[in-house]
């Protein structure tokens, strides 16, 4: 929700949190977890240096966290105050045919996202676990005319509130639909939504089933300990999605909206090859999918495909080779072999100049001589 801050003549966003009934029994509900993580991240920004300031531009932190009363339910809500941002990368995808972003935009998003992610891992000691196009916003100029227009439209034609009720028919809240906004794609990407974030404790690892179905890292699939490397897996999967307009994995029974574990295993093997003998020895479930000789015995057939087949938007052989090497550094069965943010940041594909990337401008075409890029 956008709101003007009258005393300073600034715009701020207010995220008023609502805790769903089905997660109230959770040990740490997402709403409370996000508030706790934002407080932790705020503390981690103290005594920041110049490098930290650059990284923090790519993270949507809280400027203030308030608690407000709900006059309808008698409960209380957290209200998170932060800088206004533009649309998400998911919305940006909708502006392009097939949801395929120009490669230069994908590179810029990846490069800058890695800066913020490195700070989360190295300085704040947290793992995000939910890196998706919809959780990355494009920053905007907070003095832009677009924010003023949103305020004026709301003043002239107020949004119609929607009254929500719980399962007993009791009024539980009031929801105001967001207004569509359109801002120029000019600012850096900003990672947001910290409700699924984990603090890396003394042992630095977790063992539970986690992450979105289409982005789940293989160590979780194999029921092995996981930590910060799962974020690098998500970055690799997201880059492929932005480049191709479709997900690499689809281990779903769409009719029943269920995750199909054997199907997931078969798809992972198709794109990554079989897990190493080391992982087979560690994972408690791989014996269901491989016999003693390492031969696959799973019920779902392994698709006849590869990353080379999936990546169709790069026509230049040299660039495609560099790109697939870049992706394979992040998409590994073994998290110990996965590139870190520091290691991937200087990857040759990210450093490749536009003149060596034919078609990288997408629907915009190549710049004319002398006009720059």
From TrEMBL:
Pfam families: Pkinase (PF00069). It comes from the Eukaryota. Residues 1-350 form the Protein kinase domain. Keywords: ATP-binding, Kinase, Nucleotide-binding, Serine/threonine-protein kinase, Transferase. One of its GO terms (biological process) is regulation of RNA splicing. One of its GO terms (cellular component) is nucleus. SMART domains: S_TKc. Gene3D superfamilies: Phosphorylase Kinase, domain 1, Transferase(Phosphotransferase) domain 1. GO terms for molecular function: ATP binding; protein serine/threonine kinase activity. This is CMGC/CLK protein kinase. It comes from Trichophyton tonsurans (strain CBS 112818).
């Amino acid at each position: 929700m956008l709101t003007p801050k009258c005393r300073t003549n600034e715009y701020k966003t207010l995220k008023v949190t609502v805790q769903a009934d089905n997660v109230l029994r959770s040990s740490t509900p997402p709403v409370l977890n996000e508030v706790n993580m934002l407080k932790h991240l705020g503390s981690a920004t103290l005594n920041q240096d110049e490098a930290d300031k650059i990284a923090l531009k790519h993270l949507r932190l809280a400027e203030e966290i308030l608690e407000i009363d709900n006059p309808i339910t008698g409960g209380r809500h957290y209200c998170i105050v932060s800088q206004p941002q533009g649309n998400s990368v998911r919305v940006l995808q909708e502006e392009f045919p097939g949801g395929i972003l120009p490669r230069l935009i994908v590179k810029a998003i990846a490069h800058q996202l890695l800066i913020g992610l490195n700070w989360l891992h190295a300085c704040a000691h947290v793992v995000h676990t939910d890196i998706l196009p919809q959780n990355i916003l494009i920053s905007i100029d907070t003095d832009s005319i677009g924010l003023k227009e949103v305020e004026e439209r709301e003043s002239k034609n107020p949004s119609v509130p929607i009254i929500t009720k719980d399962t007993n028919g009791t009024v539980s809240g009031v929801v105001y639909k967001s207004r569509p906004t359109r801002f120029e794609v000019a600012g850096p990407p900003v990672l947001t939504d910290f409700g699924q974030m984990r603090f890396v404790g003394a042992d630095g690892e977790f063992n539970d089933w986690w992450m979105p179905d289409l982005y789940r890292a293989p160590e979780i699939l194999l029921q092995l300990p996981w930590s910060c490397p799962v974020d690098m897996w998500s970055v690799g999967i997201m880059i492929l999605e932005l480049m191709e307009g479709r997900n690499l994995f689809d281990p779903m029974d769409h009719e029943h909206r269920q995750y199909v574990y054997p199907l997931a295993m078969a798809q992972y093997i198709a794109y990554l090859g079989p897990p190493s003998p080391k992982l087979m020895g560690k994972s408690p479930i791989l014996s269901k999918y491989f016999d003693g000789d390492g031969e696959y015995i799973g019920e779902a057939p392994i698709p006849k495909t590869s990353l080379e087949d999936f990546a169709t938007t790069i026509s230049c052989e040299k660039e495609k080779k560099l790109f697939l090497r870049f992706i394979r550094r992040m998409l590994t069965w073994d998290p110990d072999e996965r590139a870190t943010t520091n290691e991937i940041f200087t990857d040759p594909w990210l450093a490749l100049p536009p003149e060596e990337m034919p078609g990288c401008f997408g629907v915009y075409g190549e710049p004319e001589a002398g006009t720059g890029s």
